[in-house]
Amino acid sequence: MGLNLKVNLGNIELQNPVMTASGTFGYGDEFEKLIDLNALGGISIKGTTLEERQGNPMPRIIETSGGMLNAIGFQNVGIDRFIKEKYPYLKKLKAKTFVNMTANTVEEFGVLAKKIDELDQIGGVEVNISCPNIKAGGINMGTDSKMAASVVREVKKNTSHHVMVKLTPNVTDIKVIAKAVEEAGADSISLINTLVGMAVDIKTRKSKIANVISGLSGPAVKPVAVKLIWEVVNTVKIPVVGIGGISTAEDALEFLIVGASAIQVGTANFYNPRATIEILEGLKSYMKENKINDINEVIGTFES
Amino acid sequence: MGLNLKVNLGNIELQNPVMTASGTFGYGDEFEKLIDLNALGGISIKGTTLEERQGNPMPRIIETSGGMLNAIGFQNVGIDRFIKEKYPYLKKLKAKTFVNMTANTVEEFGVLAKKIDELDQIGGVEVNISCPNIKAGGINMGTDSKMAASVVREVKKNTSHHVMVKLTPNVTDIKVIAKAVEEAGADSISLINTLVGMAVDIKTRKSKIANVISGLSGPAVKPVAVKLIWEVVNTVKIPVVGIGGISTAEDALEFLIVGASAIQVGTANFYNPRATIEILEGLKSYMKENKINDINEVIGTFES
Amino acid sequence: MFLKNIVVEKNKEVKSDHFIMSFKDKEIAEDVRKGQFVELKINDGLGNLLRKPISIHDVYENKVSLLYKVIGKGTKALSKYKKGEELSILGPLGNGFPNIADDKEILLVAGGIGFAPFSLIMREVKNWKLFYGFRDASEFLLEGATSDIHYENEQIFITTDNGSMGTKGFVTDKLEEYLRENSQNKIIFSCGPNIMMKKVAEIANQYNVVSYLSLEEYMGCGIGVCAGCVAKIKNPDKPDGWEFKKVCKDGPVFRGDEIIWD
Amino acid sequence: MFLKNIVVEKNKEVKSDHFIMSFKDKEIAEDVRKGQFVELKINDGLGNLLRKPISIHDVYENKVSLLYKVIGKGTKALSKYKKGEELSILGPLGNGFPNIADDKEILLVAGGIGFAPFSLIMREVKNWKLFYGFRDASEFLLEGATSDIHYENEQIFITTDNGSMGTKGFVTDKLEEYLRENSQNKIIFSCGPNIMMKKVAEIANQYNVVSYLSLEEYMGCGIGVCAGCVAKIKNPDKPDGWEFKKVCKDGPVFRGDEIIWD
Ligand SMILES: Cc1cc2nc3c(=O)[nH]c(=O)nc-3n(C[C@H](O)[C@H](O)[C@H](O)COP(=O)(O)OP(=O)(O)OC[C@H]3O[C@@H](n4cnc5c(N)ncnc54)[C@H](O)[C@@H]3O)c2cc1C
Ligand SMILES: Cc1cc2nc3c(=O)[nH]c(=O)nc-3n(C[C@H](O)[C@H](O)[C@H](O)COP(=O)(O)OP(=O)(O)OC[C@H]3O[C@@H](n4cnc5c(N)ncnc54)[C@H](O)[C@@H]3O)c2cc1C
Ligand SMILES: Cc1cc2nc3c(=O)[nH]c(=O)nc-3n(C[C@H](O)[C@H](O)[C@H](O)COP(=O)(O)O)c2cc1C
Ligand SMILES: Cc1cc2nc3c(=O)[nH]c(=O)nc-3n(C[C@H](O)[C@H](O)[C@H](O)COP(=O)(O)O)c2cc1C
Ligand code: FES
Ligand code: FES
After folding, report:
1. So what CATH class is D2-93?
2. Residue D32: partners with Cβ closer than 8 Å, 6 or more residues away
3. CATH architecture of structural domain C215-262
4. Is the peptide bond before C117 cis (omega within 30 degrees of 0)?
5. pLDDT average, residue stretch C171-200
6. B95, B106, B129, B131: which is the annotated catalytic residue?
């Protein structure tokens, strides 16, 4: 008896709901010796910017209770080198590539989208809007519904690819942001990005991370993520991709049950490089045990 | 050589900066067999309401990675029974009592404050503004700077006690809320209250907590707390009390170094009932090792 | 109530997935009342943040023993403790079962691992009968766990779900059968799944017998400060006729006719 | 690169707080290059979420050994592993030290636990000298950890901070002393604290000797995907003349004259 794990994100189909989260899976190739990349539903690449970036000074990461802090600062090869050096490998995979991108002005988002539009073998773009808007005095675009919407409109104008918009959890009311990006034309929403955090070295009395402010991820944030995803699912009609602390099939199921159409695995890739594959296997076992043939029968079945 | 651990919260002095957090220490007496209550700097009592409340249905708590979720729903004896049954015990302690209180309307906050004003042996009130405003359609008062300010003004009008205002971390910009409550007359600010979270039972596909939405606390949230406290310290002039995941002296020092004048220990009281005392001892050791005579020389020495 | 590190003396699987852990501690041993519990801090990093409540199974000459079933990551980690290792323990906690005059017969009604707190009673009280239901013969804990307690075979009524031991069926049916014949001067103590205890309370009510039930709830603190572990208990003085009482502090044992099940 | 569970064969304290852990694994043993490392997943719940990088200390007939110092909660938990227990291991990782023709003399400069990756070199390469600095005689790892490696006493130069063994002073002073006399056909491999390695790079530069330094950074993934572990490396093609390279993947060994210290 064949189990169906295919899920749809609006106009695109994933062979299964297990994706990798941006910044935790490089450009996929680094994992080829460790797992079968063709088994994954999707791969979101390291956040890509218009120009190559070197990122923040060291130290950039530190472990915390049940999680980790990072402030990488978008070290990446830039969109042109991505297209030349990384895309040819990714396009051959069965896992759909999502080009995660970020910028500091609305216009730059448009330029990036236009370049990505040329790539015919991707699942879509993933727009990381949690970035300071340089023109607007550094306000985080992901925390302001108007800015968020204008980024999405600009991206939509410049590409016909599926546009997934990635939201930050650091807001008072996620519903407002979710609605705004939906109205601006987003094809799907992914969340959560990291929670803002900080850690102090009590010996030096300095930050443990050079950039001072950093992002919290890992199992510690899972309850926050589940709650926000449930809220967004109940607010918008477009599909939602759940992210945040997922490291086991049980975790993934929590997100699917509250209504995520797919999930992304982030930090878990670091401590368990086989996490995605084990989640996939676990989903299948859960389906068999519960006599479910189609994973879509799990999605959104939360009883409140 | 005597170490000085005394700290000031504006007009009041604590014999040391180690307090307990509301809802995790009952009314103090439950701990008398386990620790010397007179050794503590302060005790914030279980959130008290005008009427006795039974709280939410069960289950109310669940463990998460590095933390826990709770939705107790303010089960408490009500202000009148608190004054009659609990206050007589607390007033005799050297640890200063902070009467944590909450309400669903601005007026009710005033009534509570007036009742508390009668108590002559307390450190102050701690106003928990993270509560739905019933008259304003259930919006969380702690996430709206205007509502937060009006609660503080109403409380200040009704008591001459020190007014500590406890903030929720679930906002886009904590600075706005902090400024608003300072301008409204708050004598100090404490934070963080719990992060909103949720957990799903994949077998029943129901929430693991009857109330669905619950609050995340414990070591998992510490990085988020440190960051928010640092932001608030840099925004307001009134003293700030740090809360969130503190379970060791090292944790407490992170908060003091970023500028908290005192700290509150919450969830740690559950798994280590001696946490407060151990933190106190650890602070003393740190001072000795670093040849610091006065804990105030640690506060706010973060180098960014 | 004490908070201390005890040294594990024994931690052994007695039946599949059922372990007995024991340690020597005079203070705790002397302080214990029947039906109380302890809160254990399992130190395997932050995977198990909160303490885990486990009943006091037995006390004998300063040796305290716990009988537990591995059901999740906490009890799994507990089962890994080795002789000589330390464990932080908080207890004894809660109000246990009441003391009962010898002229009354105590009917102990246990479901599965709910048998845990009864050993101490069987050891210290004379006049008892045990109604003990479990799934399969492999889960019978009376021999593995309490081999040195003396009793007559007539004192014990066993039921299993699959009939592999005793009578096939519900333990509550056995209880009712028994009460139908002799309901005078009886008192019931019960511990087990809620669904079983609810039935016990009904039967007790029907035969006009007082019952004391030991409830289980997820616990945060174990000492009454978090209000995480409450049960609905009748109280005519409250507006709705009931209040939420703390299982850890006001219980875990409550009178069956005072519990509101919903 | 492999991801597998290995079975701990030995895990023993060789000097105060310094442990050797060894396990048998043919695949890893055959794959290792000198100066590579592995990432260990310490399973004590969530207290140690990320893997911990440890150099490959030695390989001998399919037996791989790690030499580590207990400095925090991860290494502490690692030291608790017992023979027979399993451990998830990822590796070998990174680019190690280059292969050097026998006519060149390799000067190994080690500071403290930085000695760890050199055993394998001392075993497999002939033409080497070791400059080894540490705090106190009690931290001398050469005997405890590598008793079966044969060398002449003249190959070894020791300095300690307190003079309890070898010469009192900096190991880099010894290195310079040596290079002052003989700097032809030499190459330097170094591992230890940054402050020492920076000095090594300076001396190498001064005497026109090529140096390879093994850097240490806090690591997230160990395989080049998180960019958590970078070092500033010269690159004239980049706008600022340098780029951040990944210590785990592009290193941990870099040429001393290409590293920018700041
Ligand atoms: C007063 C009392 C006495 C008990 N006595 C015994 C006993 O003698 N022997 C025995 O085997 N078991 C006993 N239990 C049950 C025991 O506490 C749970 O089996 C144990 O906590 C499960 O932990 P876990 O991590 O293995 O399971 P998890 O995987 O965490 O959870 C499995 C289930 O166990 C329950 N549980 C988990 N953590 C707690 C907690 N902190 N408090 C309460 N319930 C929890 C929950 O219902 C959960 O669904 C008692 C419980 C209570 C409240
Ligand atoms: C390539 C490489 C090879 C190494 N080889 C050895 C070796 O052979 N023997 C040995 O004893 N040590 C080695 N180390 C250092 C070792 O990784 C750290 O001592 C260890 O990770 C400390 O963990 P902890 O939890 O005990 O300490 P913690 O209490 O977590 O931290 C103490 C310090 O250790 C460092 N550290 C902690 N976690 C990491 C991490 N995930 N990645 C990098 N640094 C970390 C940090 O600088 C931190 O300040 C190596 C490090 C690297 C990068
Ligand atoms: C080291 C690191 C780098 C990250 N880089 C990016 C990035 O470039 N773009 C992005 O959208 N999210 C980035 N993230 C966020 C993750 O994609 C994910 O949203 C977040 O970590 C929460 O998921 P997790 O708890 O499973 O890690 C990064 C996270 C980590 C830990
Ligand atoms: C079980 C529980 C009950 C709580 N009840 C209250 C409350 O009544 N009033 C309040 O202001 N905060 C309450 N809190 C929040 C704590 O006081 C504290 O702000 C929060 O838990 C973060 O600190 P921690 O991580 O040290 O626990 C409660 C927290 C817990 C875990
Ligand atoms: S467990 Fe905290 S009140 Fe019972
Ligand atoms: S540790 Fe992740 S890139 Fe090096």
Report:
1. mainly beta
2. D56, D59, D64, D92, D96, D120
3. Ribbon (2.10)
4. no
5. 95
6. B131
